[in-house]
Write a sequence for this structure.
DNA sequence: ACTATGTCCTGCGAGC
DNA sequence: TGCTCGCAGGACATAG
């Protein structure tokens, strides 16, 4: 399941390979309902646009688009607003294509002759001859188009947030710390794997009420989260289930997991049996001895 | 304003 | 061996 490190890995590969490329044509499938109703808007924004940049916002992949000749910008030229707009603004990014991979979504850079996989919901043909393909068997992924930053996750970036702000996110929260870590309005990009792994490394039980954490524990948690996310990015993400990067390659960080999906096995630090419980409806793994 | 729970969706593995 | 069933989970909707 793509979380921050997996999305970061994908985004870096996409930035290398499709940034600057022009979009020649777009095909959108009929299947996922949200995509179906948004299809005309998405197609209109993508057609004949150029990809200026690819970046990550939480778990979202954001393609900054520049409208090409004969599309959105030309249409706007007839309105009065275009006349007062300075020339510099004309070349600025106007729209973003936002991709959320959900659970099983994959965004692949493919050769046109490569066979189209089952559950392919979108194909974007690029001027370079490559194709960008969105494949998602379970259809939890989402595609959308936005202007400005509306529709992007609002939480703090876990790798950027300073300690005081981090601590402030959990103040007065009665929800379990694990649930708080998963809340994208607080921190954006943390999912089930890295919530469990960071809590283990910080020595904190997942069910602890967020507001009950001491400043020392919060410091440990922030440090553990940064370390685990950075290490996972360096390893190209965790390939559990079916995550692969934009080139179809697997990550390596699943071999570094200390508790996630290791229930019943001995804790690598103390030897106690790793437990699995349900928190916020999510499988939650922890060491009953190392985590308090 | 929070918090907790249900919902979507398909592939896979456990169990009979 | 082959089937059914239940689980996996990110984000959002809804209920409390």
């Amino acid at each position: 399941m793509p979380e921050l490190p997996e999305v970061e890995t994908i985004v870096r590969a996409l930035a290398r390979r499709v940034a600057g490329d022009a979009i020649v044509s777009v095909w959108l499938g009929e299947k996922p309902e949200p995509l179906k109703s948004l299809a005309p808007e998405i197609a209109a924004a993508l057609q004949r646009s150029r990809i200026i940049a690819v970046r990550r916002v939480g778990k979202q992949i954001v393609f900054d688009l520049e409208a090409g000749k004969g599309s959105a910008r030309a249409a706007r030229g007839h309105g009065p607003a275009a006349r007062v707009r300075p020339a510099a603004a004309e070349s600025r990014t106007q729209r973003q294509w936002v991709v959320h991979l959900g659970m099983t979504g994959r965004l692949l850079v493919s050769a046109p002759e490569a066979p189209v996989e089952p559950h392919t919901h979108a194909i974007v043909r690029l001027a370079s001859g490559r194709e960008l393909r969105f494949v998602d068997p379970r259809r939890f992924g989402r595609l959308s188009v936005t202007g400005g930053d509306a529709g992007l996750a609002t939480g703090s970036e876990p790798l950027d947030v300073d300690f005081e702000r981090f601590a402030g996110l959990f103040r007065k929260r009665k929800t379990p710390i694990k649930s708080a870590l998963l809340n994208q309005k607080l921190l954006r990009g943390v999912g089930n794997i890295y919530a469990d792994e960071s809590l283990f490394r910080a020595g904190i039980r997942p069910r602890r009420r967020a507001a009950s954490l001491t400043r020392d524990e919060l410091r440990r948690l922030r440090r553990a989260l940064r370390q685990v996310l950075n290490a996972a990015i360096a390893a190209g993400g965790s390939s559990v289930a079916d995550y692969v990067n934009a080139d179809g390659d697997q990550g390596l960080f699943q071999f570094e997991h200390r508790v996630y999906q290791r229930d019943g096995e001995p804790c690598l630090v103390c030897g106690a049996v790793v437990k699995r419980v349900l928190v916020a409806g999510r499988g939650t793994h922890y060491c009953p001895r190392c985590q308090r």
